[in-house]
Write a structure and sequence with these properties.
Largest interface: A-B, 40 and 41 residues
Helix content of chain A: over 70%
Oligomer: homodimer
Order of helices and strands of chain A: HHHHHHHHHH
Radius of gyration of chain A: 20 Å
Structural class of chain A: mainly alpha
Shape of chain A: elongated
Distance between the termini of chain A: 50 Å
Number of strands of chain A: 0
Chain lengths: ~190, ~190
Amino acid sequence: MSERTNRRQQIINAASELFMTQGYTATSVRQIADAVGCTEAALYYHFKEGKRTLFNTVVEANLPNFMLPLQRCRDARSLSEIITCLESANREHRSDNQQRMRWLLAEFPTLGAEEQALIREKFQIFHRELAAMIRAVCDQAASAADDLAWLIICLMHGYQQLLSPLDLVSDGEETMFVRLARFVEILA
Amino acid sequence: MSERTNRRQQIINAASELFMTQGYTATSVRQIADAVGCTEAALYYHFKEGKRTLFNTVVEANLPNFMLPLQRCRDARSLSEIITCLESANREHRSDNQQRMRWLLAEFPTLGAEEQALIREKFQIFHRELAAMIRAVCDQAASAADDLAWLIICLMHGYQQLLSPLDLVSDGEETMFVRLARFVEILA
DNA sequence: GTCTATACAAAGATAGAC
DNA sequence: GTCTATCTTTGTATAGAC
């Protein structure tokens, strides 16, 4: 993959960056072409159906890999271990995933039905895996594990998309997650 | 306040609707003028500094009234009562607040420093009030109440902005909140 | 594949008449 | 206050040369 082997890929990368930071409508085809270092005409050669097609490609290329943090927790042996593990996995890709998710949810209403379904499915799979993992480490009823998994997902999302970007938690380290781990420890 | 007493207000209302559903860049001044039933020139008379100024006005007019759900919980006497109360208050203004919050967070990065600070402050006040309320009903250490308050805020946000709009929770009623109430009941 | 050149619509914004 | 008319810039998109 030399410097400019694949123009198409360069375009997708530049578009990803711009769409994510500025949003779809705020980003012009000119801007993308400039960022790549080519002309608009060249861009239209690679994406014959124009801006919207390029956007769809970018969406699929940027579906956050939800499973990544879960794989790290494979050998957790308690609920609190799962949580602290999720939190640390989360912290490492923080700015990346945070931006991707924010963008994804912001554009979600404008997406086509297939893309919306794709995203929904990703979350459902994540939830299913997490619930299974919870059942494995502490003997919960299936429905309780399901709820607990959604609870954790909501919590992480709220933290990642609300507290963290708005800089609402001042006490430096993510003590909140540590405390959650302690909470659920009691419950388990 | 007759039909067209206040053009300025009409403009703000129309702009609110359009900005929220389409976003800032996707909404044109023309579109707003059309919705109001006047010309662009008239609009520029009321907002001399143009689209961005109108937008700022709209942002301030649409800062969700965060305190509303809290006021409903004044006479809650336990942690679980607070939570179920918040949840029901939340459910009533659901679609409204959901859209407002989604929009606010999507546009947040583009806002000026003062507006960002304003939003941040609203959340901090909400948190402070909720934490105080928690301390009032169950004898928690101040720091534990603080964390618990953030936890509940994150959870509600995750539910409102992730699970609910993506239609990820299938079991009809908001059992998740009921279960959370039970969880925290044990903790208290 | 990439460029130059250009078409054409829509954007934000303003001057000046009423 | 509101309109008509107009300006300038920016947007998406394409034709045709290299």
